[in-house]
Description:
Layout lengths: L9 H63 L6 H26 L2
Amino acid sequence: MAVKAGNPSNKGREIKERLIHKIGEKEQRKMKARREKEKDHWFWLGMFGLVGWSVAVPTVLGVALGVWIDRKWPSPYSWTLMFLFIGVVLGCLNAWFWIKRESLHD
């Protein structure tokens, strides 16, 4: 049985469809890799800033509160040091929370 010049055989169509499908998959992988590569640099830069602020703000607030208490009500204990420690601990817990939350989105 002869195949006309304008109509490719079924086998030819299947090969063509598989090739198109493979090319589409490869292109999707390339696009995904490019998006993730761009996300990596900016994502981690943002995460670095978020962690820094998450620790710095509670620490500074703790020191400010401790200094205020030490000036208002003098005592043999340093409230500044105690609230410094509490601020650092709260800041680290806060940073851990944000990192854990962002790592679940990956």
